[in-house]
Amino acid sequence: MSIELRGVTAGYVKGVSVVRDIDVHVPTKAITTVIGPNGSGKSTLLRSVVGQTPHTIGSIVVDGTEVAGVSAHRRVIEHKVAFVPQVANVFGPLTIQENLEVGGARLGRARRRQRVAEMLDTYPDLAAKSKVRAESLSGGQRQLLALARALMTSPTTLLLDEPSAGLSPAMMDSMFDAVRNTRDLHGVTVFLVEQNAVQSLEISDFGVVLVAGELAMQGPAQQILADPTVGRLYLGAA
Asked: What is the pTM of this model?
């Protein structure tokens, strides 16, 4: 499922724009990473796609359908979009298995049971602790659980906000491997925001650079990695 952002301006307060006039194409069954300095509007852009932040100008087209005015709930159900926020992305008092079941609450009982089994088979680290409460997991395990829970309904588009935030280098590698496998094994379109720019672009097909709420660059991920100006743009220098 592709996503088209056409002249999108969005923000949290009326009259105050965080991102302005953004034109971005997120291709289907590929990983697209958004990078940029803190405060550049990366998460705002992501949340505008899922419908959590209103866009005041422009259009957001998901798989050929304009979604302006479509609630976040309907975007999840009707357009099969899943979103994993940076924080509060698992239910701490619930076990791994219970979190997965909540993620598949809209599924029939048999299908939900099947998807739980598939997720635990895909992520053996979670399977080994399926009866453990999420609040007892490491940061990396919680992020992995959040990813698995988002995949319970077999979305075609997955939005990830800083999936490697706060992780150790080893767990960061595991998380990026899991994101890449999500594209490779499930054919999911992945649109993510990351501060760990190099690692994320290395597993991505395309990259987007935001600076001060405006589009500074976009193109193939390897091309962005090789561009000598990316360091300057990413650091927010003039």
From this structure: 0.91
